[in-house]
Amino acid sequence: MSANLASFLYLVSGILFILALRGLSHPTTSRQGNVYGMVGMAIAIGTTLLYATPSFGGFVLIVVGLAIGGGIGAVIAKRIAMTAMPQLVAAFHSLVGLAAVMVAAAALYAPESFGIGELGAIHAQALVEMSLGVAIGAITFTGSIIAFLKLDGRMSGKPIMLPMRHVVNAGLAIALVVMIVLLVTTQSTTIFWLIVAASLVLGVLIIIPIGGADMPVVVSMLNSYSGWAAAGIGFTLGNLALIITGALVGSSGAILSYIMCKGMNRSFISVILGGFGGETAAAADDDMDRTVKQGSADDAAYLMANAQKVIIVPGYGMAVAQAQHALRELADKLKEAGVEVKYAIHPVAGRMPGHMNVLLAEAQVPYDEVFELEDINSEFAQADVAYVIGANDVTNPAARDDKSSPIYGMPILDVDKARTCLFVKRSLGSGYAGIDNTLFYKDGTMMLLGDAKKMTEDIVKAMDH
Questions:
Q1: Which of 244, 252, 238 lies closest to 11 in space, CA to CA?
Q2: Which residue of the set 214, 393, 436, 458 is catalytic?
Q3: 393 annotated active-site
Q4: 297-464, what's its fold?
Q5: How do residues 390-408 score in pLDDT, each as one tens digit?
Q6: Fewer CB within 10 A of the terminal residue: the chain, N end or C end?
Q7: Model pLDDT for residues 28-51, shown as the tens digit of each residue
Q8: CA 41 to CA 303: how far, in whole Å?
């Protein structure tokens, strides 16, 4: 295959990746977006194999590797529960980072195979690209592993505040810059592996202080890192498709991180340095009545059956209980009774961007019934019932009313403005942010304590009686 044809096909795959991102921006076009992405990747892989023209043995190794990796990926994707999607995404990000490290190491030890010079005489530009790619890749690898452990409950979601962490992180960052300069000037393999080691440590130190409430930002941030790592290695390989793909993933992940931070009224720097989420619950206001009004499935069924408008607010509790299908059944019952039903999604509900949208799509909830915060918040005042199913921090009025609260200023769903707020939760414990929810104690709130799926199913049964 000629270089011109390869470049053209890489350009085609890049255009398909752009169309994939555009399609994934809305639920109604997401399936088509996935198709564009898969076709673009198939073209990129096929072009790389034909253009590189490896030996027969090399070709066999590549095909075997693709088969093993693709097979494992297919099995995992088929078996994984939708509730575990955030940790799966984090795990996949770690593999992208590790791949960047491995490719950079291969380029360092066999530069002639990559067309970047000879061992000991690698082009300076290639060394800079390689250094940046391996540093970002190693940070992504260990950072994603820590995120996976936190999301999967194998490590506490609370921030782990190491002494003098900012000084240590700054020292490592400066050391990385110095070592990159040394690698470019000396081409020492020892310096290369020192860069890898320092980056691996930095990846752990960056993510460990970040609490559970900031996990959506962490997931999108690591997504961005993996993209930039891929782009850096794309320059080293001289692979146009990898450069385009990496740049798209890196920039879209950065934009998504900004959207997530805006959704929590926090700056990106405060997320990295602040470690918000999982702290000790805020002290109760002495002037607040701490009693709650507890109801049953029968109470909830009566209120919703006699309502004209119900707004459903799903959260991570719904995901854990896998209650999305029961929720869809409840909504169908209400619509049959002539009740208007809408769904309200907060930008950071769940453990990754779009988590709730994915779960609702799995339950085949109509797309036109699902609304983002800014599009539906004004409607809560006209709603008879707000049915909150496992969403805690994103409905906490303290973010709006209490200037002393750590989450003050974070945009929330104004569920407390509905005539009645039915709140499904296992207990009165704080959410992932560790902040007591003052919504529990408001006059218009009725707590439905129990498993979200069972409670929703019980409400459906009660509506049949």
A1: 244
A2: 393
A3: yes
A4: Rossmann fold (3.40.50)
A5: 898 899 998 888 888 877 8
A6: C
A7: 788 899 999 999 999 998 888 887
A8: 51
